[in-house]
Structure formats: C-alpha cells, structure tokens
Amino acid sequence: MTTTLDQLLSDYRDQNGASYQLWRSAHDSLPGGNTRTGVHVDPFPVYTQQGEGVHVTDVDGNRRMDFVCNATALILGHAHPDVVQALQSRASKGTAFFGPTPIEIELAELIRERLPSLEKVRYCSSGTEAVLNAIRVARAHTGRPLIAKFEGAYHGIDDPALVSYVPPVTDELGPAHRPNPVLSSRGLAPGTAKNVLVLPFNDADASEALIRANGGQIAAIIVDPLSTAAGLALPDQAFLDALRRLATELDIVLIFDEIVSFRAGSSGTQGVYGITPDLTCLAKVVAGGTPGGLFGGRSDIMSLYDPTNGTPAIPQSGTYNGNPLVAAAGLATLQGMTPDAYRHIETLNNRISDGLRKAFDQSNVKGCVVNVGSLFRIYFTEKPPTNYREAAKDNKSRHRWLYFYLLNHGIVSRQGGCVPVPLTESQADTLVDTVAAGFDEMPDDL
Ligand SMILES: Cc1ncc(COP(=O)(O)O)c(C=O)c1O
Q1: Does residue 165 lie in a domain region?
Q2: Are strands 48-52 and 55-58 parallel, antiparallel or unpaired?
C-alpha cells in the first residue's frame, strides 16, 4: 500500500499543531518566520523544545531520534552530561571577559595534538568566520586575488563562499570541466564572481588545467574534502593528492574546510587521506554545540595575525573569539571523542548504511548510500555521485516524501545524516527498519 505525500503532510499537520501556531506567530518578527535559511521547511518547521542524547522533543510533545544533530555539530548527541557540566561550571564563573582565559590554550593544544597541520590556531565564532579569515590570510600571504573553490560546495555565507553554492543545474553553469562562477545570493560585493575560480570536484585533470591557467593569480584553493553540502561524495585519493601537489608547486594556500568533514576521524578527513593542508577551518564539533569556530595552519601564514611586533598585518578581533563557554563545550566534546567513541560511531554508521543498502535491494525503490566516518547519505540515484552535478540529479521529490515519512514515524533525517555517540545498535536498526518500511509505501511516480 502506498502513501501519498498529501497524506503524509496531512498527518504532519495533525501531529504538529503547536509548531504551526509558533511558525505563524514568528512571521510577525522574522521574515517568513525564518532566521536560518537551511532550516526552512515547507509547509512549516517543527519547533524543538529540548534534546537529550539521540532524541529531540518538540513543542507538541513528539519525541524523535535525531540523525541531523544540528547539521552534524553534536557528535556527542544532545545535552551530553559532560558538556552540560562543563558549561554549567564555566557559566557560574563568568561567560566572557575582555582578555584571554586559560582554556583557550588548552583547547588549542588539544586541536594541535589531533590535527598536527594546525601549527597555530585562531578562534572565531562560526564556520563562516573561519572561512572568511582563512581566505583573507591566504590573500595576504600570497598577495593574489583569486580563490578557487569547487562547484556546489558550501563554505558558509561570506561573499566568495556564495559563488556556485548548490546552483541550479542549467546551461548557466557552463561545461562540467570548466564551470562558470554563478552568484548564489543577491547583494554580494561587485567583482565577487570575478575573484572566484570554480573547479569541478573529483576531476583532477580539469582542476589542474584550470589551476595552471590561473596559477599566478590564485591565493587559495578551498575544498571541503567530503563535499558534504554539495552531496556527500567521496574524494579520489589522486584528486586530493593533485590539489596538494599543485598548491605546493604554485605557492597556493591549500585550505581544507573540515567544518563537517572533521567528523571522519580524530584527525579529520586530512588524517584519513594523509593530506597536510596549509590551513584548516573548523566549527560545529569543536565548539561542542555552542556558536564557535576556529582556523589555523602553517605558522608562517598564521604569523600575519601576530600582534607582538606592532600592528598585525591582519587585525582579527571578535568579542567572542576564544570565548571560555565555547571552549569549555568544545574541550568536553573532544575529550569525549576517544578512539573508542570514533570506532563506535563508525561501526554503527556501517551497520546503518549496509542496512539501508539492503533495504534498497529488497524494495522497488532504486538508490544507493554513501557513508564515511559517522556521516551517511541516501541517494535516489543509480550509483553514488562523484561530484555536484551528479549529486544534483538526485530525486528531490523522493527525499521530500521520505523526510516527512520519517518525521511522522519518529525520526529526524535529511537525506541521511550522522551518527551521534549515544546511538545504540537497536536504535540504528530502528532507523533502517523505518526507512525500509517507508520504501514499501513510497509511491512509484515520485
Ligand atoms: C562545509 C561547511 N563549511 C562552512 C559552514 C559554515 O559554518 P557556520 O554555519 O558555523 O557558519 C558549514 C555549515 O554548515 C559547512 O557545512
């Protein structure tokens, strides 16, 4: 028996009346009731009341397993006791000071231990800020204007990052091996597109040709090595190796945006693939569920921030840089991420992903699953995409259907998601069984 999207939406409305009322009243204060584009849901979003472990409870009292975990940020799940304790203890002693606190050193040391490419670290308040600072210091270090980024990739909302961020796949994108820069937002500074070179992910030859053609002008190549927002796509080792080789040869700063991909292991994706970037951007997990970020890398590049010899080449202030509350949550989170914890979430992720592959095999629904570390992604495509344009062919109507089916059945997942540490085997199996049951009810004509 199939269930139509209209039926799912009708059940969704029935289950979420209080959320709907809140969303209506939010329109009085927030444009479209929204203050974070990525969380907009048509017809209306669920308003969360609280989270605990793998569960979130909404304002209607619905309790669901959460595989989104604030866009992969909460690797220890919601309200982990160690993080809560660290925050409470820190908050009771003051939340912010106009001056350094010891914990900023402690967290930086732990980050450097896990990610040796970060010889020096600077804090900021979000992933967007980490990226904008890394780009700025790369331009300052090289004296060059261009930033090379990969088609579709998300790196936050600074101007260069909003070039070719999940653009609609139309002729405007140009040939796959030589993508045009496309503005993904209005209001960007004039000349933004001119200063961004767009590269095709996972195509080492085409990327090399474009990089060589513009080499003397490129300050930085920025890459999310797992292409997490442009469709989780596993990078070819040879592709990442080529980026490293070219950047070294042409004196370009190689920036890894590991804001999501850091989850792949204790040394991030750079550890998994054995690549040493010049700079790395981090946020989400390293801020332990609070608003924070950091960036860092080669000492000679990061020395442009050093104020000890007079005015630094780059002033980077920020009222909440290195904020002790953020650092306490980040430190507690990273301390909780022991080798066993990484093993646990990776094992469960394999269990989920294999289970989902089996569910595809046993149903009439065609699709595949990509998984790495504790991240997994469901595709309604014949084979796993290798780049943005392939990922963009995914069937959005099927994802919309599955999203509401899972919400109505007690699961938050957006085209897949991530595994938090408190997840158990039986909860992982519940996800697989629920998706499998969903496949049986999914209409063919979506
Ligand atoms: C790969 C990547 N880079 C940058 C960002 C921006 O981080 P933030 O939302 O903390 O500004 C995100 C956020 O989702 C991201 O996924």
Answers
A1: yes
A2: antiparallel
